[in-house]
Design goal:
Number of helices: 6
Structural class: alpha+beta
CATH superfamily of the largest domain: Nucleoside Triphosphate Pyrophosphohydrolase
Distance between the termini: 57 Å
Helix content: 25-40%
Radius of gyration: 27 Å
Order of helices and strands: HHHHEEEHEEEEH
Number of domains: 2
CATH architecture of the largest domain: Alpha-Beta Complex
């Protein structure tokens, strides 16, 4: 059902049950309003009413042709409807990224597995992402090479649909470069980098800037 119509019906009948649970009831109420003749015109008028007068914020109730029959307007609760269920707090996960460079300044990147989150995209080497924060010694078990690692100040924060992510970065230089994607800093734009990787690279470069 069109969102504008959904909002109009929720207000006309003062439906206080939160969405999305209220959707079946709103649909039934809307169907009961549809006249036997010119149903299409009625549906278009209801959508226009929601788009221009019965708006999500500051509805113009004084201009509404249904004001006399609108229970929400009579109760003074029109702007608070429809009610939307609060989204649950997304869990927080933690990870450690590795900013590994070689003497010529190129940085090590890698491609994520094809299946799964950010499948096939380019990233900095990282520990797994988990619910508990990482200790530095523990995180180094996932390091791509031996180096003198230094923790960079700050945290890279990122949000996915189902969880939030806090990442710290360890920076190091290697004289025995492992296999991988070695990208010069002036050619990073040649790679299809997800937003998370762009954030992490920008954070590392800023932290390491003289």
């Amino acid at each position: 059902m069109d969102g504008n119509v959904e909002r109009v019906v929720a207000r006309v009948y003062a439906v206080t049950e939160p969405l999305p649970a209220a959707k079946p009831r709103l649909r039934e109420l809307a169907e009961a309003l549809v006249p036997s003749e010119r149903a299409g015109d009625f549906a278009q008028a209801a959508m226009d009413l929601g788009a221009t007068i019965c708006t999500p914020r500051r509805p113009r109730c004084v201009l509404c042709p249904w004001r006399g029959d609108c229970r929400a307007a009579k109760a003074g609760i029109a702007e608070s409807l429809p009610v939307r269920a609060e989204k649950p707090e997304r869990p927080l996960r933690y990870g450690v990224l590795f900013w590994l460079t070689r003497p010529d300044g190129a940085v090590l990147l890698r491609r994520r597995p094809e299946r799964g989150l950010l499948g096939g995209m380019i990233e900095m080497p990282t520990t797994p992402w988990r619910e508990a924060p990482w200790g530095e010694a523990e995180a180094l078990a996932s390091a791509p090479a031996e180096a003198r690692w230094t923790r960079l100040p700050g945290i890279v924060e990122h949000g996915f649909t189902h969880f939030r992510l806090d990442l710290t970065i360890l920076a190091g230089v290697t004289t025995a470069p492992p296999d991988g994607i070695w990208a010069s800093l002036d050619r990073l734009g040649d790679y299809a980098l997800p937003t998370l990787t762009k954030k992490a690279i920008a954070h590392a470069r800023s932290a390491l800037r003289p």
